[in-house]
Amino acid sequence: MPPDTARADAERYQAAIRYIRAKVDQLLTLMGTRPLRHEELDDDTLLELDPIGIVGDSFGQVIAHLNETNLALELARGEIRAIFDAIPAAVIVVGADDRVDDCNRQAREWFFGAAEADQVVGRPLTEVCVCAELSHGRRPEPGETRLSGRIYQVVTSTVAGPDAAGGKAVYLLFDVTPLKQAETGLRLHAKVFEHLGEGIMITDLDDRIVEVNPAFCRITGHDEADLLGQGQELLDSGLHEPAFFDDVGRRVREHGWWKGEVYLRRRDGGIVPLLRTISEVRDQTGGLTHHLSILTDITSLKETQTRLDFLAHHDVLTSLPNRLLFNDRLEQAIAHAVRDHDRFALLFIDLDRFKNINDSLGHHIGDLFLVEVAERMKTLVRRSDTVARVGGDEFVVLMERVGGQEDAFRLADKVIAALKQPIQVSGHELHMGCSIGIALFPEDGEDAIALMKNADSAMYRAKDAGRDGYARFSHELSEDARARLALENALRVAVRDEDFELHYQPILDAGGRVVAAEALVRWPNGPEGANQPGQFIPLAEETRLILALGDWVLREAVEQYRRWRDAGLGLDYLSVNISAIQAGHPNFADRMIALLDNSGLDGGGIQIELTENVLMDDIEYSRAVLEHLRGHGVRTAIDDFGTGHSSLAYLTRLPIDSLKVDRCFVRDIPADTNAAAIAAAVIGLARTLGMSTIAEGIETAEQEAYLLGVGCDCLQGFRYGRPMPAGVFEDWLRNRAGATG
Ligand code: C2E
Ligand code: MG
Ligand code: MG
Fold first, then answer.
1. Whose CA is nearest to atom 2 of ligand 1?
2. How far is the CA of 495 from the centre of ligand 3 (A)?
3. Is the CB of residue 322 below 6 angstroms from any atom belonging to ligand 1?
4. What CATH number is given to the structural domain containing 650?
5. Is residue 181 part of a domain?
6. Ligand 1 proximity of 723 Cβ (cutoff 6 Å)
7. Atom in ligand 1 nearest the alpha carbon of residue 662
8. 457 and 537 share a domain?
9. Is the model's pTM score more than 0.85?
10. Digit-coded pLDDT (tens) for 11-43
11. Are residues 602 and 706 in the same domain?
């Protein structure tokens, strides 16, 4: 064979082999990866494989060769497939008919529901693909594509087919979602860092500033360049103790973070309040690398808070501290005074008749007036003192560090004088008096409540004493008041429970016969020092409990007299004391008459003792009442005669049976000749007026002899008998009758 021919043959042969290989590839694709079998190669196939007949008829040779090639290819293919499947990207080959031509494991996992290859290959992509976008016929676009919520970097290429018709598309999809997220995250972080209203500062473990954001610079007034590499001393406000930072550091170490209010110094020297969060920043291995501080400017928050605070603690009208704040200051003042062994004064100021201004000129003028009053008061006190408005027209002044009460009195005088100056309000000229109560710490109260209460009660004393003045709190007064209240309550209970007794003191005639007895009330269970009538009767009168008590006394006396009369004790009458309140009651006479009627006594047997003052108050009325009673057989007597504004001339106009000469005239007989002369005159006069006389308080024989000598009709006193309980009196009387009779 000439070399030319031989070379041409060899070339043809090579071309044939390349062609066959390509075709084999095609075939293998058609048949899967099985070795090609003889029977499968029919004439048509062969014709397709070898259209130009280069292989000719040597069919067996071709088959052998093909099988050989096939095997080698098969091995290569296995290797390629392993690599193909190991690629961490999805590879999908789609044929011209839109069927899946091939795909790797990653593709099946991501896009074909992890199906086996034979379930996917050869089937239409729209049918087998589980990705919504692709199953709707969309093809992945080169570049970044979002599929099933993830982001893929897509590379596409085409593999040309043997003829123009059969091209294949190869898609390579890399999942770049995490990358993208990280990227977006970083971008977001950067954005947040840049634009956050909160200041951010990152410090390293040496406490040097390594990063700040624009907001931080804005808050502190420093440029980023000034701050980076600096320590935090640059920002120290000087307002926090070192212990504060130690504590913050400890908390960050213990909990990983800390949050609280801090003050930083701005570049211009100003102080800015911030809400600061400090957290630890750690690397992947957990090692501490930085500290991150987030700082919120709370200046305006603080301002609002301050404003709210002010409103909560001040009177809106006058802007003076209100009761709440005042109590606070008072508590503080007490603490300081205790610590420093100091004194302070509390002045409770009440405007006199402020209501008049409100009522006559309206609340608006009243308000303006109060504002003016507040202004005046503010000018009178020292800076350290507090003026507060604690009620409509009530002010208090806390006067710190006073030497003694004189300091407080001086201020009280100043306040009174200042308010006396006319106050001009909307064309009205107003004058105002005030009453001031003063309490000093610690003498007048140990705590805020006691001090306020006592200053208040002193203020009432000042008012009682006739307005426009001041008074200091006095313990005696309040103890008196307390005791009085306790007594009043006890008395009320006793009246309700009728916890009283009547004792009877004999009244004798000049011949020594016991003609009557005076009923004197006793309160055996009454408190020590208050169970004598001289003590509890005035209180009973003040509280008008005397009405009920007097009723009881009358009932009891009437009842007793009826029993003694029935027992034949031989008393002409029982004498009962009637208080002014009782006598003044419009029903007094009627009630008494009803009582006597009910008792079965036909009127007689009871004498009432009234003091002259009661009778003189309204002499016509008294006359009517006494006459009415006398008409029903009631005897009338004037008690304690000589101690009141005695006017015998008037007395002649009243229906009076007896005069009782007061013990004070009897007591000093015969030593005090004046007293003796008065007693004698009274007795003589009474006789000429047709009244009988009873001398009270006779203790001695001399007194008795003298009084009998000047014509006294009846005698009463310890000389004859003390007031005795009914039973004792009865026995005493019987014994006496037995002895004398
Ligand atoms: P009174 O009506 O002038 O009563 C006489 C008072 O003098 C009684 O005091 C009596 O114990 C006292 N007394 C009598 N003889 C002597 C004496 O020789 N020496 C001394 N030192 N004292 C003598 P008492 O019982 O303490 O009563 C005081 C006052 O209380 C009475 O003065 C009377 O005003 C009032 N009182 C007593 N009981 C009643 C009552 O039932 N109703 C009213 N409204 N007042 C009463
Ligand atoms: Mg009496
Ligand atoms: Mg008397």
1. 577
2. 23
3. no
4. 3.20.20.450
5. no
6. yes
7. 3
8. no
9. no
10. 655 555 565 556 555 545 544 544 455 555 566
11. yes
Into how many domains does the chain fold? 4
Of the given ranges (104-108, 149-153, 179-183, 277-281), which has the lowest mean pLDDT?
179-183
**CA distance linking residue 65 with residue 410, whole number of Å:** 133
Ranges 179-183, 186-190, 209-213, 729-733, most confident: 729-733
CB distance 527 to ligand 1 below 6 Å: no
Distance between CA atoms of residues 510 and 506, nearest Å? 13
Nearest to residue 380, comparing CAs of 433, 344, 419, 428? 419
Lowest-pLDDT range of 91-105, 332-346, 372-386: 91-105
Q: Provide the CB-side half-sphere exposure for 144 (13 A, CA).
A: 7
Does residue 678 share a domain with residue 548?
yes
Which pLDDT score is estimated for 465? 73
**Is 522 found in the same domain as 619?**
yes
Write the residue with the smallest CA distance to atom 34 of ligand 1. 577
Phi, psi of 376 (to 5 degrees): -60, -40
507 alpha carbon, closest ligand: 1
What mean pLDDT is predicted for residues 487-513? 94
Question: Is 487 domain-assigned?
Answer: no
Tell whether the model's pLDDT for residue 425 goes beyond 70. yes
- End-to-end distance of the chain based on CA atoms, in angstroms? 200
- CA 584 to ligand 2 center in whole angstroms: 17
Tokens of 583: 């006598």
- Tell whether 559 and 618 lie within a shared domain: yes
Residue with CA closest to ligand 1 atom 46: 577
Read out DSSP for 72-106?
A: HHHHHHHHHHHHHHHSSSEEEEE-TTSBEEEE-HH
Specify the pLDDT at position 51: 54
State which residues form the domain around 73: 3-175
Mean confidence (pLDDT) of the chain: 85
